[in-house]
Amino acid sequence: MRLHERADAHDAKAIPDVLAAAGERGASTDSEMADLLAGTFMPIHPNAGRLLHLLAMSRPSGRIIEFGTSHGLSTLYLASAIGAEELPVITTEMELSKIDLARANFEDAGLADKIELRVGDAFDTLADLSEGVSFLFLDGWKGLYLPLLRALEPRLVPGAVVVADDTLLLPDLCADYLEYVNGAMQSYVSVGLPIDDGLEISVFLG
After folding, report:
1. Which tens digits make up the pLDDT trace of 8-38?
2. Residue 180 CB neighbours (<10 A)
3. Domains of the chain
4. Which of 14, 73, 97, 110 has the greatest count of CB atoms below 10 A from its CB?
């Protein structure tokens, strides 16, 4: 995919500079590195994208929600999985510098009509959900994975699929989330997959 090639070429130059700057300032958390990561794509790997697509296609009836749009590559995999009569994927992004490029990518892919991009804090932009959520992809700030999941749990339908990214890349930041979905056995069945930077796939039991 052309977008993957562009993202890989860009991040190959940008990421070393980000890591160097993070080391100089002692930044390690999402919030401490937010400004450094603002210009990076950090795209999902094609294999992870295809898995998202397959899981989204096989989900129960309900809305697809994405936390962390970035430049929209993962959003495109999700949007291409929904049928013509289904409601658009809702994706939310707080970093304003990424919004225009994400929207341009949606237009270029011919999928803009299947995506609703909400700009701002996800706890605000997702607060008015009225439909059941059948698929939740967590790829924003890692420390917010668990609080956001808990906030959206009342909207999850039985059998809903929840996918968290970067669980192997940033295990410390994802630790509370992983402990929760693997420990709440009455609510979730969960498994970690070593795809790209690590994916935790969970099914909500209701």
Report:
1. 443 444 444 434 444 545 444 555 445 444 4
2. 17
3. 2-37 (no CATH), 46-204 (3.40.50.150)
4. 73
